[in-house]
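ugh ok so i messed up the first submission bc i forgot one of the chains. this is the corrected input, ALL of the components this time, i swear. 590 residues overall. if the numbers dont match what u have on ur side tell me asap before i send this to the collaborators (the ones from the other lab, u know who)
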Amino acid sequence: MIRVFIADDEEPARERLRELLGDIVAEVPNVVAGEARNGIEALERLPASGAQVLLLDIRMPGMDGLELARHLAGLEQAPAVVFVTAHDKHALEAFELNALDYLLKPVRASRLAAALKKAASAGAPRREQLARAAGGPREYLSVAERHRIVLVPVRDILFLRAEQKYVTVRTKEREHLIEESLVALEKEFCGPESTHAFVRIHRNCLVARSAIRGFERSGAADEEAHWQVVLDGLAERLPVSRRQWPAVRELIADK
Amino acid sequence: MASIRQSAYPDLLPDFRNLAVMARVLLAVNGLAIFGALFAAPNLAQGLERFVQAAAFLEPLLFVELLAFFLFSRALTRLAFWTGNATAVVLAAAVAGAYHKGVVAIASVPVPGLVRTLVLAALTAVFLLAYFRLHTKAFSPALAEARLQALQARIRPHFLFNSLNAVLSLIRRDPRRAERALEDLSDLFRTLMADARQFVRLEEELELLERYADIEQLRLGERLRISWQLDAAPSDALLPPMVLQPLLENAVYHGIEPGTGPGEVLVRIERRGERVHATIENPYVEAGNQRAGNRMALDNIRERLSLFFDAEASIATQTTNGRYRVDIEIPYRRA
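and heres the new structure output, hopefully the right one now
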């Protein structure tokens, strides 16, 4: 019995999938474990539903399907994902390239059955696969807890700092630990796709450009100058490495 | 693709009531006069002097001619193309002759002889008609092209497949509703594939809008609310086909679909004097704007409006207070 979760913003589309799942139940035993109307709702409901396969619309309000899939990939028991779309040329090309499963709307019962069987045996897609298919930066970072996913909006993040195995995500209110590499995060959030939202100031630290209030010199007068970032609403100062200083200064000047 | 090769664009006399046509006539005739004066005179100063002298005779004549063509415009377009052309030349000469008579009777300025006036008026008319014919010819491939683009811009695959999917979901639960939805879809596509070069009446376009809205309602349910303000809409106004529908489609695609909650789209059409104003407004959703395709539809509509109305139509967009708004203004023409 495959537990299936449906995420689509259009009620008739969800209904159609429910009907089709009912039609193929003899061939592929399945049960609908839950439904959601958008990405955020899916993140709230899916972890507790025990779903093994997620039928996921790409285009949804709030959070699109690809980003949702990337957050779900952090779950301990992440579901296999079958993307469902009416038409999305670029997304489909990306799916092909990265070996992700998808179905075209209107969906045929036979295709759905085949996709379910395949997905149930293949398991969850890998994070890197999804990241490559998505192309652009996420709007949230996520911290996967046992049966819950906590979202941190990227625009609320002040800085990201690597500490041994984890990366600390610092917002005004609190800190989160995520299991991602700072190098991958830099690629995602320091490039032109994210309009250079973050800037690397040190080997282990990326800072949100919008959070930078200014720079302070530190160190005694006889020593070589050493700069620190002053952040909005945070007492902590972050050191800028000598190597990054010219690049940081240039980016800030552009702001 | 037979429709593209079908460039047998109907030969039509220019619309003498169109401001842009009048402006072109004024410019061309004055250009000819300056050229003639400069060509005939021994030097620049004398040439200009001659032009100024001639202008005293020429400019009132031009206005009388324009007025005459304005009045006879409908009658001329009703004639067959070549008869119409011949009649136009005769009309131009006749008006010039009458004007000549009048000037000789009341004014004491030196005037060119009657025969010369008649010949010059007729020749100028021939020249201008030839120019307008070439102008139309030059633009008819653009029209055909615009039609193709319009076709592509109109059929948003996303809309088609999602609608079909919605209809499929209805078939078991509510077969009658499914039937109606398919009928709506057929009507929409029939118009889509109709000849995009003919004017349609506003009431037909509005009916189409409602069909389209019904389909979207089916998919989006309570997320989509449309407020129709059509009490002052002149149902007999003529406009190019499929000008409003793509705008409503845009409003839904960019303003409603990317939003999590319900949103309202406003459609307001009204006549103000000799102009027809149409406004379509939707919630401005930031993520919605990154969706491609909005510009393309707008450019296409702008292009078609100018092909149909020359410089007398306008289209403008603005974003204020979280609402995105498109305004269209066209001259009020009746069927």
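quick check: Residues 1-9 of chain B have pLDDT under 50 and may be disordered. that seems consistent at least. The beta strands of chain B are 200-201, 224-229, 238-239, 263-272, 275-283, 314-320, 323-331.
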